[in-house]
Design brief:
InterPro entries: Acyl_CoA_acyltransferase, GNAT_dom. It is a single chain. This protein is an alpha+beta fold. It has one domain (about 1-175): Gcn5-related N-acetyltransferase (GNAT) (Aminopeptidase). About 25% of the residues lie in helices and about 35% in strands. It has helices at about 10-25, 85-100, 115-120, 160-170, and strands at about 1-5, 40-45, 50-65, 65-80, 105-115, 125, 130-135, 140-145, 150-155, 175. The strands form 2 sheets. The chain has a 7-stranded mixed beta sheet with strand order 1-2-3-4-5-9-6, with helices on both faces. Strands 8-7-10 form a 3-stranded mixed beta sheet, with no helix packed on it. The longest helix is centred in the middle third of the chain and has 15 residues, at about 85-100. The two termini are about 20 Å apart.
């Protein structure tokens, strides 16, 4: 596993990530909003091929009279021909461990399609029942409970009071608002 600030990702690896994402999500735009301090994590095989990738995005999130330092997982992808071999799970677990060790991060918070919740659960993230992430911007929001979405909000808490903070984030609408580039992470 290797990681880079997205802006420092070597061109050869960046090109592979872009091609991989385009294969899995045709029409997707590469890269993330620099204001979210994107960090790219990769699994690369011995031949130098990116086999799995994800991005970590960072942003303060105000909730319950406090501002939390949040990180989110975005663009989690593995080579389609290598799916089912545990690459994505290893990468997601490594991302969680990195976030847990970062004293500047209070929690990891993101949404995923409902069928993927067990995948993220196996890496140490837990669903937040009834929680809705409100992405986009305050003027142009995009919520995880929008019509046609079947999303689950997942989290891991790295604070001094993880149970209390989990309670604060359960069953509420969280004003994530990452902007117009990364409307949800």
């Amino acid at each position: 596993m290797i990681g880079y600030a997205e802006a420092d990702l070597p061109a050869r690896l960046a090109r592979q990530v872009t091609e991989l994402e385009a294969r899995v999500w045709p029409g997707s735009a590469p890269g993330h909003d620099p204001a979210l301090h994107p960090r790219t994590m990769l699994l690369v095989d011995a031949a130098g091929t990116v086999t799995a990738a994800l991005s970590l995005l960072y942003k303060p999130v105000p909730l319950a009279d406090r501002t939390y330092r949040a990180a989110g997982l975005s663009s989690v992808v593995a080579l389609p021909e290598l799916r089912g071999r545990g690459l994505g799970g290893r990468l997601v677990a490594a991302a969680r461990a990195e976030l847990a060790a970062d004293p500047a991060v209070d929690l990891a918070l993101f949404s995923c399609d409902r069928p993927l919740a067990p995948f993220y659960g196996a890496a140490g993230f837990a669903p937040l029942p009834g929680t809705v992430l409100v992405g986009g911007t305050p003027e142009d929001p995009l919520a995880t409970d929008a019509p046609g979405f079947d999303k689950v909000v997942m989290a891991a808490f790295f604070t001094d009071d993880p149970a209390g903070d989990r309670e604060a984030f359960t069953g509420v609408r969280v004003p994530l608002h990452p902007g117009s580039v990364d409307r949800l992470w």
